[in-house]
From TrEMBL:
<dbReference type="InterPro" id="IPR050415">
    <property type="entry name" value="MRET"/>
</dbReference>
<dbReference type="InterPro" id="IPR017938">
    <property type="entry name" value="Riboflavin_synthase-like_b-brl"/>
</dbReference>
<keyword id="KW-0560">Oxidoreductase</keyword>
<comment type="similarity">
    <text>Belongs to the Fre/LuxG FAD/NAD(P) flavoprotein oxidoreductase family.</text>
</comment>
<dbReference type="Pfam" id="PF00970">
    <property type="entry name" value="FAD_binding_6"/>
</dbReference>
<dbReference type="InterPro" id="IPR017927">
    <property type="entry name" value="FAD-bd_FR_type"/>
</dbReference>
<dbReference type="InterPro" id="IPR008333">
    <property type="entry name" value="Cbr1-like_FAD-bd_dom"/>
</dbReference>
<protein>
    <submittedName>
        <fullName>NAD(P)H-flavin reductase</fullName>
    </submittedName>
</protein>
<dbReference type="InterPro" id="IPR001433">
    <property type="entry name" value="OxRdtase_FAD/NAD-bd"/>
</dbReference>
<dbReference type="InterPro" id="IPR039261">
    <property type="entry name" value="FNR_nucleotide-bd"/>
</dbReference>
<feature type="domain" description="FAD-binding FR-type">
    <location>
        <begin position="1"/>
        <end position="98"/>
    </location>
</feature>
<dbReference type="Pfam" id="PF00175">
    <property type="entry name" value="NAD_binding_1"/>
</dbReference>
<keyword id="KW-0455">Luminescence</keyword>
Amino acid sequence: MKEISATVNTVELVNHNVYQVELTVENLTFSAGQYLMVVLPSGEQVPYSIGSAPHELPNLTLYVLVSDTGSLAHKVIEHIKSSDKITIKAPGGDCHLSNGVLDTQAEHILLIAGGTGFAQIKSLFSALVEQNYSGKVSFYWGLRTANDVFAQQWLEDAHKYSPFTLDVVVNEPSEQWQGRHGWLYEAILQDHPDLSQSAAFICGSVGMVYGTLDQLEQKGMSQDRCFSDVFAYAPRPEKPEL
């Protein structure tokens, strides 16, 4: 990863706790699905998936979830909001579009995101659209409540690209939510009961990634066709022998 200066363009609160950060960078190349590190004045380096696709350079988009004022994410946002330029390190990660997934002969690519894992999956989706990818692609985004949804304009535009499908699944139903609800994996398996010829990118918390993978494997998904940054920093727990 190389150190790069990034110009801060906008910082916008796009729902009750997620900020969309727009940066401009020069001399950066990356593959859809990779991440960068925001370098704080303290020297701390905080990873965020790049939420834009390579063809959108020199513009970069980040989505930063700030759960409370004592969090590291709050320090990141306060630093970005108070700066004209920030230092980043990029690119990082091997869960990306150039890792061979398009050579696996998979008939179907699942793009699965939980929460702000949306950033990485959005980048992958946008890159596949830009490449005029001719295979089957299904994007599933899981959120806890309707209030957690963001990037509505992007979602509306993505829905217009009919060769691919996109589903937002809210875990807790409410009167204000007219879309799909329930567990994210249930929606995936309802739509695709046989995953033996599929590949998947999964982005979310450690528990979400491995819990989803467990469910996909029961329908034929092979782990060597599943890709997630979680695999690199949180190896899969051993399953108890029965």
